Amino acid sequence: MMRSNRRLAALTTLGASLGLAASLAFAQQANWHPSKWGAKDEIGAANYLTPERAAAAAKLVKTGKVYSLGIEVTPDTPAFPPRGCKLYIVQPGQHAGATLGETKTSYNDDILNCWVGIGSQLDGLGHIGIDNVYYNGVHAKDFVDSTGLKKYGIEKVPPMVTRGVLLDMAGYLGVDVVKEGTAFNKAEIEGAARKQGVEIREGDVVLFHTGWLSLIDKDPKRYGSVEPGLGKEGALYLVGKGVVAVGADTWGLEVLPFEKGVGVFEVHQILLAKNGTYILENMNTAPLAQDKAYEFMFVLGQNKYKGAVQSMINPVAIR
Amino acid sequence: MMRSNRRLAALTTLGASLGLAASLAFAQQANWHPSKWGAKDEIGAANYLTPERAAAAAKLVKTGKVYSLGIEVTPDTPAFPPRGCKLYIVQPGQHAGATLGETKTSYNDDILNCWVGIGSQLDGLGHIGIDNVYYNGVHAKDFVDSTGLKKYGIEKVPPMVTRGVLLDMAGYLGVDVVKEGTAFNKAEIEGAARKQGVEIREGDVVLFHTGWLSLIDKDPKRYGSVEPGLGKEGALYLVGKGVVAVGADTWGLEVLPFEKGVGVFEVHQILLAKNGTYILENMNTAPLAQDKAYEFMFVLGQNKYKGAVQSMINPVAIR
Amino acid sequence: MMRSNRRLAALTTLGASLGLAASLAFAQQANWHPSKWGAKDEIGAANYLTPERAAAAAKLVKTGKVYSLGIEVTPDTPAFPPRGCKLYIVQPGQHAGATLGETKTSYNDDILNCWVGIGSQLDGLGHIGIDNVYYNGVHAKDFVDSTGLKKYGIEKVPPMVTRGVLLDMAGYLGVDVVKEGTAFNKAEIEGAARKQGVEIREGDVVLFHTGWLSLIDKDPKRYGSVEPGLGKEGALYLVGKGVVAVGADTWGLEVLPFEKGVGVFEVHQILLAKNGTYILENMNTAPLAQDKAYEFMFVLGQNKYKGAVQSMINPVAIR
Amino acid sequence: MMRSNRRLAALTTLGASLGLAASLAFAQQANWHPSKWGAKDEIGAANYLTPERAAAAAKLVKTGKVYSLGIEVTPDTPAFPPRGCKLYIVQPGQHAGATLGETKTSYNDDILNCWVGIGSQLDGLGHIGIDNVYYNGVHAKDFVDSTGLKKYGIEKVPPMVTRGVLLDMAGYLGVDVVKEGTAFNKAEIEGAARKQGVEIREGDVVLFHTGWLSLIDKDPKRYGSVEPGLGKEGALYLVGKGVVAVGADTWGLEVLPFEKGVGVFEVHQILLAKNGTYILENMNTAPLAQDKAYEFMFVLGQNKYKGAVQSMINPVAIR
Fold first, then answer.
1. Inter-chain CB proximity B132 and D92 less than 8 Å
2. Helix intervals (H) in C28-180
3. What residues of chain B lie within 8 A of the CB of C96, using their CB?
4. Chain C (263-282) residues lying within 8 Å, Cβ to Cβ, of chain D
5. How many angstroms separate the CA of residue C302 from the nearest CA in chain B?
6. Which CATH number is associated with domain C6-73+116-318?
7. Shortest Cα distance from A137 to chain D (angstroms)?
8. Do B93 and D132 touch (CB under 8 A)?
9. ∠ CA C89-C92-C96 to the nearest 5 degrees?
10. Which of A235, B291, C307, D228 could form a disulfide with C153 if both were Cys (CB 3.0 to 4.6 A apart)?
11. Per-residue pLDDT reduced to its tens digit, A185-237
12. pTM of the prediction?
């Protein structure tokens, strides 16, 4: 179905109507594999990461102010059902306060029973597929195992050390919290970038600030059921720019309710499955927006549990 | 016991015999709380982190080469008993390959049943205590809860963006793998630093390369039961230097078997409980040693699960 | 402390004032170990179970009507904090509906991340202690291990096949739901037994019906914070009778708020620690009460996870 | 495929060649749904359980000797991959030996991270399907949910109180341990029953003793990879008899390697999916065989975790 001529035609028309060049990204939408990095590639847009870009990102650091983009997670953090997370603190071998050795060592240890996709997270390329077919056209039956993915495990993603760009959509729209259902497409992205005086370049990590994260405690139900976010055209636009990852201060990056005529998590499909572009969710962007920090060094080293679909993260912005 | 005059006297003598100035760090050993950052402090040596040091660290980046210091973790990764880790891959709501919506979205999700202290890890200040008393003199009964620490939770630790220093002890000792039981004390630390032409400064993260991590697959039993590592004098020396964290390519940083006259995990006690100095374990230092990368920008943003004792990590070195 | 003369005196006086003979059970309260079954005994009142009693219980079966005394458990079942339970259904190796072999075998499997003490449960003798000392005077440090009890593991408890007795306290008190804080002591137990025309004998399992379980869905907060139940004198009385186990249709058997002058879960201490008498919680007694089934064959075979403190259960009553 | 005429013909021929009447059970094999208990039925052969049969079973009790048919489970118990089980013992709110209240209550609690299908277990009707279609023709997509089955949850199975029959196949074959790959079909079942002087009746639970369980510690690899057990013809034979459940002292009941021409776990398909007949695994039958206890009262009350596929169990035999 995804390769039908009719659909290709429709997308070509869409591309034309958007006034976009017939970019490789667009051509890929109907016939999306092999990926532009070859049929064996497992890291997608992380191929854009280069030492040159890392070195250039380091040059963006002026004051050394550091931003922790990860949010705190608790058992009550809203998450896409049936996700949840529990932590247990234990004191192995120290029952009733017993200690170890002459210097009376005590210790606490901890156990997580946790869905990985909770709080601030990096979606790997094995997260979302199209009719059970994932990035680079690999079918679920060929890489999904009950105890870990045999391809696209999160451990494969190299550290992201590159230029980060914040698009303050709340500021652009003149609100504290962008309304649910507000889609960020070409016009909004270009508008916000122009207003801020930043451009989006190949190899960037782009983060949207919407203010939505401020609802996580105040109205967790609203927070977790809808959101403003990236639209389908906007996703194609950013893919065309060659970004490594797109993130937001929302639980799922893409706009919800979904745009008219756009499928269930189709923006995820476009980014992850079709283009190998990573997604960053629940990013704590407010301090960046507050400081008008629109450009910064972005550093993410995610946990490397082998075969994991995704990772709980805490990326660092420095400027 | 820890505050007895006799012990204070002994430590003062030890300090003198080591040729060290009677630093605050030393004075603290017998009467170790309140901490030098006050009785309420919860982050210890992370207080050494400053924007200036972050900016200076960014200036160390020349080529932009990036090193992922975290190791891959699997269910077979050796860990301090009874620690272990299991991952499950699931496809919620997609039984028998069912998909979501018109664009036929499929997705994988994952669940971790995992001790947090596995693979590459950051030990928080609530990890190790002395007779149930932890950093800043806080008793276990006053901050340990079964579902999360009420103080010293790992989410409190700010991102570590600072200068990293590698001490290649294997290279210094002319071996591929430093033998278990080999203690790194003042002489070895200064010797290696001198050979490499680096100095250790306040605010640094210091990593030892020993080659020990190469045994993790080849001889997991040997790997996990003993190790070369930091000695007691060496720990006091580094504390005296004002480092933020000390790490190694071993499972527990400190030398095992423990040095003669040194208690069970007493080096952990000195670093974490007495001085608030963080510990980084199972650091993948081999590529740094290979490149003679003795000085680099170190960036660590750990997951912020609230109340966790520690975190699985993947710090990034950039130079 | 537990052995002080003053306390012994107090208990002796209590015994006298209750008009009870100075039974072994009472004498044990101040000096409660070794147990009446010897210092090495690990099964307590399960020693009362005999083939004769099992055979006699089978003779109570007349119509063959079977009662399932276990309740259904879900993630929402109220439980003593921080207890909870999660179940995951998975289809290992069958991604996207793939099947096994020529006859196309599909299968579901399931994973529990669950505190054991949830729903209908059997408390083992390692559950409750007195100042870290448990049944038969064994200190926590001598049998508690992080991955399983080295004594009193639930696997040690033999199947309970014996006479069951229901005391319908709601019926006795003429209410649908007995009010929280209502203590069942000698007078109430004897009163209800007399009204029903049953006697309590050595080797019995005694279950109280209070109607409280009907609140589990209707008012889970009230359900889980207080309850009617066994009082201290009542516990001593039943111990004196030589019962194997005492249960109720409440989450914790004993009356809450605790009786005046009675300690936190002191009834648990009396039953489990001091006398090796088992506790059965969240028993679905309503169908028995409805049928006026006051005497029946009671059969319980609990899961034998080695070293577990307790077990989720579903005892069977037959009459 | 399952309903093809060719297959029906083949099965009819098989039925004839076995000398069996064309029972409903057989007729169902090709066109196996709706079940004989109607299209809405969720409990299958548990419909054979009646008060009369429970009462008759109680009459089998003569001496009152009780047998615990469940085995002990530990983290090392071999299980069908990737199954496994971990238990953690914790002391909530009692850090460093702190106690609760004036009577100094201490307590241990426990957490299971455990696949349910481990050790002695009851397979529910949602466990095994045919091309994603389960008992009564229900498709996986219509009842399988990630957090619990919406049909066939193990909580639906009523307590099994009925006549139990042991077939001592090791005794019949004159060996201690029946060899892997040995199939129990009509001839072997009838032969063993005749030798023992017992008959198999509607409503029975039939258990095979093979001695295989003695390998669980001695040779866990052999234990878990193959087994003697029920053959396809034998399964159809027992279904024809109207048994409630079939069990064995093996991990998977059915013979492995599978019989020639028999599919992967096809005996499971015949019993569970096609006929709603329950399976009991890892039954500790040796003490029954030792006592020549061929007929007994069988009582099983399994944990009622809602929506679970199966249950860890400890059935009780009494005679």
1. no
2. 51-59, 169-173
3. 96-97, 106
4. 263-266, 268-269
5. 25
6. 3.50.30.50
7. 24
8. no
9. 90
10. C307
11. 999 999 999 999 999 999 999 999 999 999 999 999 999 999 999 999 999 99
12. 0.90
